[in-house]
Amino acid sequence: MPQRLLGLTAVRIGTTCSGEGHGAVTLEAVTVPEAHRLRATLLEHARPGDAAGDTVLSRIDWRWLRYAPFTFWVFGGVGVVAGTAYRVLDGMGIDPWRTAVVQDAFAAFGDRAWWLTAPMALAAVAALGSLGALAVYLENWWRYSAAWTDADTLTVRRGLLTTRSVALERDRLHGVLLREPLLLRAAGGASVAAVAGGLGDKEEAHRRGALLPPAPRDEALRVVAGALRTPSRPLDAVPLTPHPRAALRRRVVRGVLFAVLPGTVALLAAGLLLAPVLLHAAWVYATAATALTWLLARDAHRSLGHALRGPHLLVRAGTFSRDTLALERSAVIAWTFTTSPSARRAGLVTLTAAVAAGEHAYPVRDLAARDAVPLAVAALPGVLEEFLEPAPVRSAAHGTARRPA
C-alpha cells in the first residue's frame, strides 16, 4: 500500500524454476505505467503473435460474501490474531494471563453454568471470526476479475490495500484445481486455483495461483472449463473411477488409532485416578468419536476417484478439503509408486505425478495395485514401458519412473 500511495508497484518475473527465490526477478518501486508496459513487452516477446480481445471468465459478485464465513478464517483467523497478540505482549514483558481483564473474564466464565457459557463463548468467537473473514475476503478479492487478456495469457486482478495482477501464459498453465473445504462444500461453494509454472514455491503457488475466490460451485465449474478452454465442464462430464473398499478400511483404522483410542484411554485413566464420572465420559466419547470417524472415513472414500479425459488426468481426494484436479497429462515428468506394509497387505498403491508446476507432486491415493501401472501407462505412454516387469509394483515398496529427457 505505501508504494501504491506514491504511484509505484513491484513487478515479479517468474520462471518454472522459481522455487525458493531461484529463477525469479523482482523489480521494486516501478511506476505503474512502466510496470504495465514491461509486462506487455515480456509477454509479447515470449509469445509473438496477434492479440485477441479479452475473454472474461469471472468477475466479483458481492453476493459471494456469504461464503466468507465458511472459510478457514472464521476460527483459524481468531486463533492467528490471538496468538499474534500474545507474542507481542509477551515480547513487551506483559503476561496476558495475569492481567485483570483476562482473570475477571475467566472468573465470570467459571461462576456460570458451563453449558451456557461455552456455547456463548463459541458464538462470540464465530461472530468475531466471521467479521474477520469478511474483511479478509474484501481485502483479497476487491475488484476481482479473471480473463484471457489475449489469445494465450490468463490474467487475474484483485486486491484492495495491496493490488495484485498475475499473468499466466497458456504454455505454463498445466492444470486447474477445484477446492471444496468441508464447511464451504456444505454451503454449496468452491474455489479454483491454477497449476502453473513460474509461481514460486508451494506457498507462493498457492497464494498467487488463485483463480476464483470462494463462490458458488456452479461458478467454479464454469471458471475451470474456461481456464482449461474446454467446451464442456470436465469435472462434471466424466464419471470418476472409484477406489477399492480397502481404502475405506484404511481410513477407518487410522481414525480409530489416532482419534478415538487416545481420547478414550486418556478419559479412562483420568476416571480411574481422579473422578469416576469420567469413566462415563470415556464411553460417551468413544461412541461419538467412532461414529464421526466412520462418517468422515466414508466421505473420504467416496471422494476418491480418477479418470482420463482427453488431454487431462482427473483426480479427486479429501474430506476436510475435497480437491479435484484436472492435470495436463503431457506436463507429467515422472511417476512415483509408493506403498507401505499395511497398504501392500490391502493391495493398495499411491501413484504420484511429478510436475514442474504448482505443488510439484500430485498423488492418486490408494489405487488398487493392479490399476496403478495401467493408469500411468495410459496417462503418459512411452515412460514406463521399458521398466515393466511381471509385477512391477508388488516387488518394491517405493519406486520412481522418469520421463525421458
TrEMBL record:
Q: Which UniProt keywords apply?
A: Membrane, Transmembrane, Transmembrane helix
What is one Pfam family matched by this protein?
bPH_2
InterPro entries in the cross-refs: YdbS-like_PH (IPR005182)
Source organism = Streptomyces lavendulocolor
| Annotated protein name in UniProt | PH domain-containing protein
Taxonomic lineage of the native organism: Bacteria, Bacillati, Actinomycetota, Actinomycetes, Kitasatosporales
For the YdbS-like PH domain, which residue ranges apply? 308-367
* Membrane-spanning intervals of the chain: 67-89, 113-138, 252-274, 280-297
